[in-house]
Design a protein that fits this description.
Length: 159
């Protein structure tokens, strides 16, 4: 992915603004969320799905591996691979059935644990903790220049 953008988030409200802005330009494909425990991957996902139109709770699928959603006629699958011991476990749980869903959005937390069992990302967010407990630095990598341009305009950042 050749297009990269860095955004600084200083509050949970900024996270919500960022998630809403991203939802406007990225509604299907594969999204990787990379970051340490407590970096805010699930918090971002909650705001992202709320912006999409989801009503209700968004819980981390740490134990179930996947939480499926139907939001305004769109299939969204939120995977958390943190507890995965072997990527082959994804085959055993039927990941191919999920991945065959047309026009769906796939969100993967801890994608490195999925190795070759999951598709490559269309968009990757690296969420990095900072010295300020509430602030985050987000590195956005996308093969789609339009996503980067949209975020630059709506988040008021320069490359």
């Amino acid at each position: 992915m050749s297009n990269t953008l860095k955004i600084n988030i200083s509050s949970e409200s900024d996270t919500q603004t960022f998630a809403t802005s991203l939802m406007q330009c990225f509604q299907e494909g594969v999204l990787y969320l990379i970051g340490d425990l407590g970096a805010g991957k699930t918090t971002f996902t909650r705001y992202f799905l709320n912006a999409f139109g989801h009503q209700g709770t968004v819980k981390s699928p740490t134990y179930t591996l996947v939480e499926p959603y139907q939001i305004q006629g769109k299939s969204v699958f939120h995977f958390d691979l943190y507890r995965l011991n072997d990527p082959y476990e994804l085959e055993l749980m039927g990941i191919r059935d999920y991945l065959e869903t047309p026009n769906a959005l796939f969100i993967f937390e801890w994608p490195s644990k999925g190795e070759d069992e999951i598709p490559e990302a269309d968009l990757t967010l690296e969420i990095l903790k900072t010295d300020d407990e509430t602030a985050r630095e987000i590195l956005i990598h996308s093969s789609n220049e339009g996503v980067i341009q949209h975020l630059q305009e709506h988040m008021n950042v320069k490359r």
